[in-house]
């Protein structure tokens, strides 16, 4: 019968058999799937695994610390954190087009990740070679992509250096038979903190696609504050399960007139986008309690500099996507 204990025992045995005494690398995104996959492989092969986390500076408040401290504390995993904030901000300077932002973030991410891989491989060269790449592929991903081949052909770029021309990694995908709720149960059983296991979806490009307008450090800091307030209040109101996710968006290129304290303000609006959904393919805006909305609005306008208005997005998907960019 299916139990999380059985799944863990079975996968640990399979991973040990597959990897042997070689080494593996796993990219952590901050999301549930990569965290659980890494924890499972760590359980199986311990220090033969190294995780890589790219901090692009587009994460929400405390998210990087969560990976750095809580995840490592719970698993004892070896973690390489790459601080690439300046690199990403530099690449995003002056860019306002949503697709362009996504392309730049994706491109920089791969570059930084490959560089980190090359460093880990170089460091391990006298040791056992790094031959395995851990991925948090779930059952729905396998079905959607038509089965998968089991081998990733990751080509090194000449400008990255260190990697052999056509290095082939064997994939380790311990979650291939699982659905999301099962992955969460396995993560819980492995002792991962609740904040990681129950995490709502968050896009890879992070807050970079939640700033309408150019992405700057100042705007990111401002949005991080507003987002942290919204998340805190939604959690306090017990709405984390009912709401699929609630993007908080900064309209950086829009200003409106307000009055705060004794004076006129001319600040930016923050958009709240709470949605209910089964799979993110379609979604409806969440009819959430007015008193919670009121608390979020009051706190954001009081506590976040340069924000003088909070608006609610009441659009379903379609026609609106969940994210604004
Ligand atoms: P949209 O905006 O297309 O979002 O309705 C659907 C779901 O996908 C998430 N999303 C992303 N996730 N990388 C990700 O890993 C991305 O580039 C990305 N873009 C959107 C979004 O948060 C929602 O859950």
Helices and strands, with pairings:
Layout: H1 4-19, E1 23-28, H2 32-45, E2 49-55, H3 63-75, E3 78-83, H4 85-92, H5 98-123, E4 130-134, H6 139-144, E5 151-153, E6 168-172, H7 180-189, H8 194-197, E7 211-212, H9 217-236, E8 248-251, E9 256-260, E10 263-272, E11 275-276, E12 284-285, H10 290-303, E13 307-312
Parallel strand pairs: 1-2, 1-4, 2-3, 4-6, 7-8, 10-13
Antiparallel strand pairs: 5-6, 8-10, 9-10, 11-12
The chain binds xanthosine-5'-monophosphate (XMP).
Xanthosine-5'-monophosphate (XMP) binds at residues 201, 203-205, 245, 280, 317, 321-323.
Descriptive keywords:
single chain, Rossmann fold, GMP Synthetase, Chain A, domain 3, 13 strands, about 20% strand, globular, binds xanthosine-5'-monophosphate, ligase
Descriptive overview:
The structure is a single chain. This protein has 325 residues and is α/β, with parallel strands linked by helices. Helices cover 40% and strands 19% of the residues. It has helices at 4-19, 32-45, 63-75, 85-92, 98-123, 139-144, 180-189, 194-197, 217-236, 290-303; strands at residues 23-28, 49-55, 78-83, 130-134, 151-153, 168-172, 211-212, 248-251, 256-260, 263-272, 275-276, 284-285, 307-312. The strands form 3 sheets. The chain has a 6-stranded mixed sheet, with helices on both faces. Strands 7, 8, 9, 10 and 13 form a 5-stranded mixed sheet that branches. α9 links the parallel β7 (211-212) and β8 (248-251). α1 packs across α2 (32-45) and α1 (4-19) packs across α7 (180-189). The protein starts with a helix and ends in a 13-residue tail after the last strand. Bound molecules: xanthosine-5'-monophosphate (XMP). Xanthosine-5'-monophosphate (XMP) is lined by residues 201, 203-205, 245, 280, 317, 321-323.
């Amino acid at each position: 019968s299916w139990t999380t204990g059985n799944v863990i025992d079975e996968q640990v045995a399979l991973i040990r058999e597959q990897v042997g005494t070689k080494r593996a690398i796993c990219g952590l995104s901050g999301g549930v799937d990569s965290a659980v996959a890494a924890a499972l492989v760590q359980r199986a092969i311990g220090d033969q695994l190294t995780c890589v986390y790219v901090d692009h500076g587009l994460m929400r408040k405390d998210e990087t610390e969560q990976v750095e401290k809580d995840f490592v504390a719970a698993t004892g995993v070896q973690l390489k954190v790459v601080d690439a904030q300046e690199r990403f901000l530099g690449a995003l300077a002056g860019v306002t087009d949503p697709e362009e932002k996504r392309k730049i973030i994706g491109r920089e991410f791969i570059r930084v990740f490959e560089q980190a891989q090359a460093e880990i491989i170089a460091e391990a060269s006298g040791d056992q070679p790094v031959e395995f790449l851990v991925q948090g592929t779930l059952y729905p991903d396998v079905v959607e992509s038509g089965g998968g081949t089991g081998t990733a052909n990751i080509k090194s770029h000449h400008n990255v250096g260190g990697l052999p021309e056509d290095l082939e990694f064997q994939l380790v995908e311990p979650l291939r038979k699982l659905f999301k709720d099962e992955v969460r149960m396995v993560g819980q059983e492995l002792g991962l903190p609740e904040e990681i296991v129950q995490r709502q979806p968050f896009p890879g490009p992070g807050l970079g696609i939640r700033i309408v307008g150019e992405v700057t450090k100042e705007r990111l800091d401002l949005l991080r504050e507003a987002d942290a307030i919204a998340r805190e209040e939604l959690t306090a109101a017990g709405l984390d399960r009912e709401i699929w996710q609630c993007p908080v968006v900064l309209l950086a290129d829009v200003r409106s007139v307000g009055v705060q304290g004794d004076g006129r303000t001319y600040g930016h609006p923050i958009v709240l986008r709470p949605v209910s959904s089964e799979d993110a393919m379609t979604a409806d805006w969440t009819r959430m309690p007015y008193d919670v909305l009121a608390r979020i609005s009051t706190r954001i306008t009081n506590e976040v500099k340069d924000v003088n208005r909070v608006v609610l997005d009441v659009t379903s998907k379609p026609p609106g996507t969940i994210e604004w960019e």
